Fold these 4 entries.
Entry 1:
Amino acid sequence: MLWVHDLDAEGRPLVLAGRIVETEAYGGSDDPASHAHRGRTPRNGAMFERAGALYVYRSYGIHWCANVAAGPAGEGTAVLFRAIEPLVGIDAQRERRPKARRDSDLGSGPGKLCAALGLDGADDGRRLDAAPPGELTRVVRVTAGEEPERLVRGPRVGISKAVDRPWRFAIAGNPHVSSPRRTLG
DNA sequence: TTTCCGATGTACT
DNA sequence: GTACATCGGAAAA
């Protein structure tokens, strides 16, 4: 589960969360498809933090995409959140994604899930292992869920290098997994 | 349903 | 200038 705890416009607690149903792994300097491949820049610095830091970047100049750093400090490995199944605060997530017609339009893509959960550049570098939600502090965290029945894997989406590495993972048959689904499993 | 394409920040040639 | 870890609207089928 991926959680965002915050306050709404009237100062009341707001909780948005969803089950992580799809991810992609990105390596460090040895992975030509990774933003970390060419070393640290102002944008990708959070990738090089020790495991647990959020890396949020702007994609195609428009959307936000969120990763979590996955290695020791300086390595640059990360996991991209590619899709969530919205479970908590669905109405509030719909308000943030008015284009969504079905629940499966809310988080079925890396840009979509950031919009639904309100993740943006202000969250870049935030730690996912921070203290439990407090009164005034925005908190983003990940918690373990039940073991999925079946995981499928396939090539990563939207890349042109290292396309042979099957580092995209998803829960088989879950309707909230992003398109394209064909190359999975 | 599938295919095509425009929007546009950041990094690189 | 070009490429890019994307999305959604329009057109085609």
Entry 2:
Amino acid sequence: MNAATPFDQFTRSAFGIEPGGTIGARLKAMATQAALPKGQSAPSDRTTDQVVFLASGATKLSAHASLEREQIVAFHFGGDITAIPSDSIYAYELTALVDSELLLFPAREFFDLAASDASISRSLLGRLTAALYRSRDKAVALGQKSASERLAGFLLGMSERVGKPHRGGCLLDLPMSRRDIGDSLGLTIETVSRQISHLREAGLVETQGRSHVRLLDLEALMAMAGHAQPAKNSTDNDSNLISINARLATSG
Amino acid sequence: MNAATPFDQFTRSAFGIEPGGTIGARLKAMATQAALPKGQSAPSDRTTDQVVFLASGATKLSAHASLEREQIVAFHFGGDITAIPSDSIYAYELTALVDSELLLFPAREFFDLAASDASISRSLLGRLTAALYRSRDKAVALGQKSASERLAGFLLGMSERVGKPHRGGCLLDLPMSRRDIGDSLGLTIETVSRQISHLREAGLVETQGRSHVRLLDLEALMAMAGHAQPAKNSTDNDSNLISINARLATSG
DNA sequence: CGCTTAATTGAGAGCCTTCAATCATCGTGG
DNA sequence: CCACGATGATTGAAGGCTCTCAATTAAGCG
């Protein structure tokens, strides 16, 4: 086991502890390492919740409301931690959007052990809270927002997580399909496609191929997404630029 | 401080620790106790996330997507713990549905202290995970389900939390208005009202006054909600009755 | 270079919303 | 105890946004 294994990355970057310690050894004993090729789903356990550390790649966590109806509740990227329920009213499934490496833990044992270490507990409490907040924000979008608002919000959210600054705008290389975007936003692929076309016609974005999107006007997108805080006075728009970058990318 | 104070209830029932200990004293030092009359909102802190323990009563946690657009992300009842974000893109607000008693903690300090105690950590990890699962399930409903499915799911969810068994059915005394239900389900009050009328006409529920609802056919409601697991064989419906009661009521 | 899959674009239908009016509920005051 | 008023809930009709169905175009891969 060299210094760059997923497990070392897990203990060090996620929790700030050394993999060689007592806790590290016990964590390792209950971990299952998996290399998920693109499109493949994590081995699901119908009897035990699972905690997942995504070492590298990108995944989607989706719930099957019925055959033909899938809701993606979260996207994950390298370094993210998430939890997969086993006894929900829906069947949840973690699927790789690109080739990915991940560590799987049985949730109950993992939390039992984590609770005994202050550093790990503190990290998990923060991450779970962030994931909860993110999930709530998604619920707000799904419950209250129009298709154009949702798509603008989605692009801005992705820009925070995988965007690269590019001449005052932002360059995205989206790992998910239009269907995935639709399943995440509660829209059909046709509606997603139409909304992207509208954004393109409005000069707010440029697209190249299936996955490359360039956000040309972040401020206009924020206004369109309804992310702008109600201006306290007249033209007090500066605060938006700050708040939009405030939250770190974490599973949710 | 007698044995029935909200704080004693908090440490004992929520975490299984004695309020008199060192941790208990430090928790108490950072706690703010509040009695919220019906309709009133908790004092919001725009700079610090808050952890809330609801000792008694019922509350809603809502996000303001804009003026006139409110999404309720969670209902809470006595014994629940939740967290209110301060720096979200939406303004979150905790409002009492009935006269309520609650304890407020600054989230960062609270989690810092909680992490140092294995018992508290374990409890919080479980509660936060449950809240995350519940929020995800709500996202699924908001993203994929029709009005009738959402309302049936709402009634079943409430039956688990505040329902009283009644002659093979379930008796509900809902503390929230039709507007609250609509804001929770991403529907208008008119649509909620129409769907309730449909359920009544179908003989699945009876209503009495504004808040009393009697669920007459839980199985039919489950089928309508789309909560039924895909039957593995022919008429294997017994498992639904078990799974519907599997999750404990927790904030989220 | 051709094929398979994904994405785009268009037309029509459906579900929920909006707008409007009526009815019921419940707290209050006589 | 009942009448009254205010708020909440119900019901109806019309419109809008997204979905469904269908066809075309583009992208990516062998």
Entry 3:
Amino acid sequence: MPELPEVETITRALRPHLEGARILGVTTHVPRLRTPLDLEHRPELVGHRILALRRRAKYLIAELDGPCCLVLHLGMTGSFRIVPPATPLTAWEHVVWQLDTGCEWRFNDPRRFGSAELHPLPVPGGEPACLAGLGPEPLGPAFSGAALHAACAGRRSAIKPLLMDPRIVVGVGNIYASEALFRAGIRPQTPAGRLSHTRCDRLAAAIVEVLREAIAFGGTTLVNFKTVDGSEGRFRRRLLVYGRGDEPCTRCATGRIRRAVLGGRSTWWCPHCQH
DNA sequence: ATATTCCCCTGGAAGC
DNA sequence: TGCTTCCAGGGGAATA
């Protein structure tokens, strides 16, 4: 569920609680999430101060005043909260960081698709080697219609699953891929390599637009996305095609939104507005 | 190299 | 009412 706007919302909400805080201890309550949890008693972590909290793709990076950083991923159902230390543990609260601010930072993830790992950070302000294969940030300077066109060149795959490939562009998941294609008027099944420069320009602009709007609305809550204070994202009502199978199109009112599975993921589009 | 499939895991909705 | 089945989806590994 958390795509770029949701992770960005969470990063901004966590920042005032974490930046400058020192980690006094870490407790884990399951052996692993998507990857093994190996955080307790690590000298690279315990005792260090969090210098900065950043987002890269759908990852959160907590830079420490040492050689390492925390790399966190929310998977499908991950969430964080900041609570007083005596607060009873809830179900699925798998990681607890004790901070010198008098608060605890907790990671909750029912489905355990998330991850929390410690990685070397060779260059302060940089990013760890484990994220080196990621493509451009859609809201950064490296992303454009031209970059998208180049990344799609020669690809026969449908554009929609390709939009969710983090080597092409990061942060775009199932919801915003469908939404961006609708805004750009492009059918999700279109072979990526067939898209013209003009259409790639339009698509890149639509991706930027929908992500910016979603961030402004605090993200999209479908089932259980919540930001740090427990509030839900307000972008759900702005979704134009996602989850709207059989409904009349909000734009043309004549087409009916269709659903198909592309690359194993449900995809929605308006056959009248998208070509 | 690229494209597709599967798996990880649980809760909620739908179906019988 | 209560059981089973299906589906959601990020990312990485395995397979074609």
Entry 4:
Amino acid sequence: MGLELNITTNSAVPLYRQIAEQVRVAVATGALAPGEQLPSVRAVAEQLVVNPNTVARAYSELVREGVAEAQPGRGLFVAERRTLYSPEERDRRLSAALDIFAREVLFLGFTREQIVARLDTTLAKFEAGAEEKAHE
Amino acid sequence: MGLELNITTNSAVPLYRQIAEQVRVAVATGALAPGEQLPSVRAVAEQLVVNPNTVARAYSELVREGVAEAQPGRGLFVAERRTLYSPEERDRRLSAALDIFAREVLFLGFTREQIVARLDTTLAKFEAGAEEKAHE
Amino acid sequence: MGLELNITTNSAVPLYRQIAEQVRVAVATGALAPGEQLPSVRAVAEQLVVNPNTVARAYSELVREGVAEAQPGRGLFVAERRTLYSPEERDRRLSAALDIFAREVLFLGFTREQIVARLDTTLAKFEAGAEEKAHE
Amino acid sequence: MGLELNITTNSAVPLYRQIAEQVRVAVATGALAPGEQLPSVRAVAEQLVVNPNTVARAYSELVREGVAEAQPGRGLFVAERRTLYSPEERDRRLSAALDIFAREVLFLGFTREQIVARLDTTLAKFEAGAEEKAHE
DNA sequence: GTGGTCTAGACCACG
DNA sequence: GTGGTCTAGACCACC
């Protein structure tokens, strides 16, 4: 277990974001335990065949978010106490994402029911994916 | 009636897209009726304090999408509503938007039910907002 | 293989549209295969001696149309072929092009048979040209 | 009979071009005979409810093309001898129009047969329209 | 007055 | 290196 990363270059999502995202999910689902060490920038860069700068950027984003902590000279470790967002902040972010999504999708001409149903299956799919990873 | 535009410069969403999106939503929800004239490029540019080119770019996107039509020398007018995209394309776009949204939001720690419920409210709000405007 | 671009400045068709059109045709006829990389904005701008913005505009149109896709930081690549527009929209666009063409050409005094025959040859030429290029 | 003009403002085709086009067709089909006088700019502008400048522009285009001739102080008359384009020029124009049309339409994904068939019906429709006018 | 095109040059995100 | 966004300012077609 630990961490299994995979990326797709032919995507509009930047590589560094794909990497950060997968670490975040691994932490959230417990596949990566608090205190566990993250693989080194160089190791990840070699494995994924990407520029080390790209990995470094993903990592620094995780540190900024409080998901990981740097122990100078030793490497990056999953944070013990994830102090992520305040309830208000979480709510604000959800609202913002909802607004952007709604605007985007209203224009396509789907009904409210269709959109809601599709979101439900999409979220279920993501959760299932995370479960799978956690049990690996 | 008509159109109330407002933008936020410190957003990841580019200005021209914010403008186009607001017009699109206004049209999709009926707040802006087919045949209605859009405010002139210069007027919008002045009101929002942005470069006319930025507004022009938003407008040309709307024209290419078939949301608005230019009458040479007279201005831009809301086009008759029509289904531009093929079913597959609409689905593709919905899926893409869902994926981005799901990634953004799962990480925040809401349950699936919470997210779905909030989306329902958000979509309803947009529809209601349109009604309101149409009856003003 | 690849792409040969050439433009004419004293044309009613804007530069950015000439560029986009040539890429579109190359893709539609198979001269440019899905997955292939497009020449960079700067390279094209230099080759054609136009402003990079003009090329960028052509490219962004192709992306919006789904003809090409951007891979952040790497460049533009030809997208998988897909049907973007609804049947009604395709028909609408064909009708519009036909109308403009007919008005333009009827006035020249050719017979219907002559015009139709010439169109057939022209279309065949485009298809043949693509074959040729694909086998180079 | 003489001339019956009608325009549509909600079109991408500029008004002055719509007007000029209708005069051209009327002359080509004999609805307007050589030597016949064209209605005055002011008369047309009033009838169509457009800016006189717009009509004047259409007329000046016709004069430039040799379709009409100005008799100073008396007005505009249909030219006796229409010396339009040389055979080479006609051919060149047809080719150019064909090229533009083909590029536009290839992208839409119709087959050659479909396009050719649609052109045939479109041209037939236009010819029928002209006949009708000539017999009014 | 309207929108549309093009140039020039700056700044940013991504790899 | 890649593309994307924005500004500034010019010029044109159309009404």
